[in-house]
Amino acid sequence: MISITLLGTAALVPIPERALTAAFLTCGGHSILFDCGEGTQSAAVKAGVSLMKTDLIALTHYHGDHILGLPGLLKTMWRMGRTEPLYITGSEGLWQKAMEPILRLTGRTAYPIELFELPAEGLQLCRLIRGWASAARLTAFKTVHKVPSQGYCFTLELAGKFLPQKAKALGVPVNQWSRLQNGQSVPLGDNIILPE
Ligand SMILES: [Zn+2]
């Protein structure tokens, strides 16, 4: 199931009931944060969602009302003991216009921060982050704004027909079949069995 929480929908200036831009997507225990305006952390607490295990942050552009919540969030993740890598993608100029100054403010983090560009055809998220459903794909598309900007399309392709005889032949234990049916891979010894 895909769940999207709109954490902030205000522009330029936050108001008591509307934080600046941020949306949080969860799917199968994994999550993506789209933009991170000022007040995103408070808005998440209010909405009852935790941003601490966010796998990936996708930024649309680098105006302050879309990114100024990032230094605080990155620092909180560190304080909360995060060790897993955090992946960050964005429009043109991700390092120079956003992450270089933000990381200078944030300082050291105990977890790795990996910047990456989405390929034009989109990315099957399990190829970057272990545990995502193989059917989950993130694609960027250009949007019209005063500065280079992009939107994102998250898709969950329909699962194919489950073939129990094939799972059996591959030696996948029956109690793991539901993972394959849900589009997740199953580690088996030194191998990983993909739903395909
Ligand atoms: Zn803007």
Under CATH, the topology of the largest domain can be stated as Metallo-beta-lactamase, Chain A
Instruction: Specify the biggest β-sheet.
Output: 7 strands, mixed
- CATH classification, class level of the largest domain: Alpha Beta
Shape: elongated
Task: Enumerate how many helices there are, as a single number.
Answer: 6
How are the strands of the largest sheet arranged? Answer: 2-1-3-4-5-6-7
At CATH level 2, the architecture of the largest domain is: 4-Layer Sandwich
Q: Approximately how much beta-strand content do the residues carry?
A: 25-35%
The CATH superfamily label of the largest domain reads: Ribonuclease Z/Hydroxyacylglutathione hydrolase-like
Unreliable residue runs: none
The ordered string of helix (H) and strand (E) elements is: EEEEHEHHEHEEEEHHEE
Q: What's the average pLDDT?
A: 92
Annotation, overall tally of beta strands: 12
Radius of gyration: 18 Å
- Count of folded domains: 2
* Unique ligands: zinc ion
What is the distance, rounded to the nearest whole angstrom, between the alpha carbons of the first and last residues? 20 Å
Give the fraction of residues assigned to helices: 10-25%
State the secondary-structure class.
alpha/beta
